[in-house]
Amino acid sequence: MNQEKKYFAGLDIGGSTVKAALVDENGLSTGALTEVKSRVKEGFDATFEQLEEALRQLVEKEGVDISAVCGAGMDVPAPNCDGVVWTRANLGEDWVGTNVRDKLSERIGIPVYMTNDGNAAAIGEFSVRPDYDGSLLLVAPGTGLGGGLVLPSGKIYEGANGLSLEVGHVSVPHREDDGSLPDCSCGLKGCVEAWVSLMALRRRVALEIKKGKWADHPLASDNISIIDKAFQLRDYAERDDEMAVSIFQQQGQILGYALGDLVRVFDPGLVVIGGGLADTGENFRNRYMGWVQEGFIERAWSVYRNSPIEPEKVTTSFEWASGGDFSAALGMGFVARDLFG
Cα separation of 4 and 6, whole Å? Predict the structure, then answer.
């Protein structure tokens, strides 16, 4: 076995699976990837067993001893600061208030860095763009609306308490047809997440199919739950269904509007859109990105679109996430190499 090189592990802990990747001393993926079942709801000790199994599989695939792994980066799907989880989210009860970073470090005998899943996704997208060294803002529509900001040179911006970049809870001045502000999962009203998320799609589908205009739509008559109808909406949109397209058009424009404010605050230069929409067909992605830019143009000052000195120079670029399912794990390995290499 080759023991001369140093390696660093990236551990992406989700509610269903733990994805793991191995990065070499140059900050590059070795190609060793693995995925094991997540047991986060059973507690952190059960999860640690899965993390150790993932590490065993990684080094076996790479053909090195576990002692070659010199550090690890880990993300968890919950707010945390300095290794301590602040809220339960989708985790087991014993995670909250526990310094799981230090406990894992002690258990596996190497230093560990920990952040949240939004930050991990952002650094993952940064790490798969080796020729880009500016700032990167990630927004990821999913069950909610996550986000993360990477500063030039690849440093994650976490804030004083690890609570920065809750992009889904920026307020937008959009209202329902009756003039009301939609409820958000955070307990507030009018957040962008209430318009741009899977939860929002469920509400929009329910409201739209009640309208007489869509009385003959298949989703209006299908005897399935609103959850299943929302999941099907993307497939309908990719087939140019009028109702589905109108819902996603509204969502994209509102996301772009919110990005107009976020870019005014952070001026990242590059905005990456992740989440499940990044895996849709090219035609739909092109249309959705167009709607995002329509909303952005409505809200963003002209200097955040093109340079006033060089009008042909774009000051804010938009791209789809390209790192794939293991980008967060790779990003965590990338950070571990920088911190512990």
Answer: 7
State both tokens at 154. 């690849």
Residue range 3-43, pLDDT digits in tens: 579 999 999 999 889 999 999 999 899 999 999 999 999 99
Q: Are 48 and 86 in contact (CB under 8 A)?
A: no
Q: What are the tens digits of pLDDT across the range 267-296?
A: 999 999 998 888 889 999 999 999 999 999
First-residue to last-residue Cα distance in the chain? 20
Q: How far is CA 77 from CA 74, 99, 108, 120, 246, in A?
A: 10, 15, 21, 10, 31
Residues 274 and 148 in one domain: yes
pTM of the model: 0.92
Domain extent at residue 225: 136-320
**Domain CATH for 21:** 3.30.420.40
> Nearest to residue 329, comparing CAs of 58, 99, 18?
18
Degrees, nearest 5: CA angle 74-75-76: 130
Angle, vertex CA 265, rays to CA 154 and CA 322, nearest 5: 45
Are 107 and 195 within one domain? no
